[in-house]
Amino acid sequence: EPEVTQTPSHQVTQMGQEVILRCVPISNHLYFYWYRQILGQKVEFLVSFYNNEISEKSEIFDDQFSVERPDGSNFTLKIRSTKLEDSAMYFCASSAGSGEKLFFGSGTQLSVL
Amino acid sequence: QKEVEQNSGPLSVPEGAIASLNCTYSDRGSQSFFWYRQYSGKSPELIMSIYSNGDKEDGRFTAQLNKASQYVSLLIRDSQPSDSATYLCAVTSNFNKFYFGSGTKLNVKP
Questions:
Q1: B47–chain A nearest CA distance, Å
Q2: Dist. CA A77–CA A80, nearest whole Å
């Protein structure tokens, strides 16, 4: 069964460092998303991406965040200067069409020290 | 602010019973509704989607949607210990942004 894959599964970084989280969405999907979940809290929307551009972003997704689809398969989230409060599980998701069900990757646990 | 509200639980039911999970949402323009299951430390896993008023059944799961009341529910029949997890309600209106509730923790006791 096709799945969304994310790497790495765990990332530990120092405050102020840049991190790149990587995702390979399901191959025939057109919509890509990043969500995050701080421990014990709800899944929060960060950004959606369609047709090689951001279609919507949340207030969390400020200038320190960026997304890119560098080739036909990868979808990345970059955090330029990490803060302690960026520590969370980051989920990549994809969907085949607008408003259709999201399929989530297994997540990257980011720890900022 | 578009909200999705769920009772955090925990909801405890005995094995074999029906578990009833509820969700309300604030945006009347919402058009797609989903139930996800999330085991601790894992990613959300889709259980059901529902788009129109009424009931939708899939195996032991039934989703119910009432747009007039802005209410969506999930019934789990013949609950099993393996159903113990947090159940997330998700709602979308503009098709690019899904709003998640904080989840209801379900405990199924053997």
A1: 10
A2: 10
